[in-house]
């Protein structure tokens, strides 16, 4: 005969060794499906990492819809997205970030390491910013730190934020930069760093023809003649 106390006092399951008792619900927002798939494979093994990926999105509208529906604890947010970029997602999700009982926190995860991108999303309400060179283990750790309310940055990027918020003066408006889209700025920086068109295409997951189109648009908007002038222009603004 079985012991009746066993039915009244069931044994609690033992958590997986890798994750312990930690658990965080995450939404991935990035316009590159292959990258989302890679992140999901790297950190989304819930029993090992404690990270549960509850949704994905490829643009601003999708992101707002998925985040609102799933109410994750942390959103991994790319800076450059169709529909207005990561800053627009943050703007539209501001009420969710301000929810005292169940706040949604954002961690920017981007290929860009430009100061204006970092400062823009932090001013928008993100709790941190890491680049896509981060390891899976460090990314998991960063997600849990953001869940707990910490601010997390890749080492080189922390200085941008400290410098920006240490100054009481708002940064001057650069009307020339404002003419460029976020993708054009990204291509501009890579061109200025000496990348070939094929290298830029590979890094940004776009075609060489698309790179050429962005470069032509940048030259036209800035009234420059060639990539050498473009490099000088970017260097003068410390974008390299």
TrEMBL record:
Alphabetical list of CDD domains matching this protein: LuxR_C_like, REC_NarL-like
Region (Disordered): 1-21
Sites of 4-aspartylphosphate modification: 78
Keyword annotations from UniProtKB, A to Z: DNA-binding, Phosphoprotein
Response regulatory domain segment(s): 25-147
InterPro entries cross-referenced by the UniProt entry: CheY-like_superfamily, NreC/VraR/RcsB-like_REC, Sig_transdc_resp-reg_C-effctor, Sig_transdc_resp-reg_receiver, Tscrpt_reg_LuxR_C, WalR-like
Superkingdom: Bacteria
Pfam families: GerE, Response_reg
Domain annotation HTH luxR-type: ranges: 173-238
PANTHER family: TWO-COMPONENT RESPONSE REGULATOR
Protein name: Response regulator transcription factor
Organism: Streptomyces doebereineriae
